[in-house]
Design brief:
Layout lengths: L5 H19 L13 H17 L6 H17 L2 H6 L4 H24 L6 H26 L1 H7 L8 H21 L3 H26 L4 H34 L2
Amino acid sequence: MRIYLGRHVYGLAAIIFGIVTLVWRDFTTWQQNIPHGAVVVHLVAAVELFGGVAIQWPKAARAGAVALGIIYTVFALSWVPRIVAEPLVYDRWGNSFEELSIVSGAMIVYACTSRNDSGRQPKIARMGYTFFGICVISFTLEQLFYLSATASFVPKWIPPGQMFWAITTTVALALAAIALLSGHTALLASRLLTLMLIGFALLVWLPTVFADAHKMFNWAGNAQNLAITGAAWIVADFLAQNKSHSSTSDP
């Protein structure tokens, strides 16, 4: 029996987000542009913790996916006023698409764990998959537009240099987006994308926590990267399941 880990990683990220929100009484380091007081902070933390825990269990995964899908959609839409006000600043678009990529993971989990056999479930899963592919285009553009900033995140000790890896990962994201949206080598692309995001976690984000564990930005950055990694993993699991089902149904 094949074990699919994507939704568990995705849920873990939500739990970390919930804990960070409670500890710092804030959720705007990444999930910004929502006026908030104590009630909103606790509501956001409760939804993230509930969703993160619920999605771990098959019988509750659908409810967890709904909870997380709603909260991440709200976060994505919260960037729309900033996009309207500053349409030429791609950072605003990029932040919204980052949240939408996480929404995509929730959509696929919801569809794949539903006990409803209606034809609507595959459509929701496919929509989530397509949204994720579009979001990968945004990741590519964001790195391209802010290439120097991207290079600054690369550890200086990794040869042959920071700019080399900034350009290489940008090209890799572009190729992943093409593969996902075209359907050609999509499973391989999703798996390689997931591995690259895990690399970002181990080489870029995790060391920041050890460098300064008291800084919210470091914990939130780790949670955001892990959430997107979880969404990419969910996409890979979705494609692997579809491939497995196709192989089983072939005469």
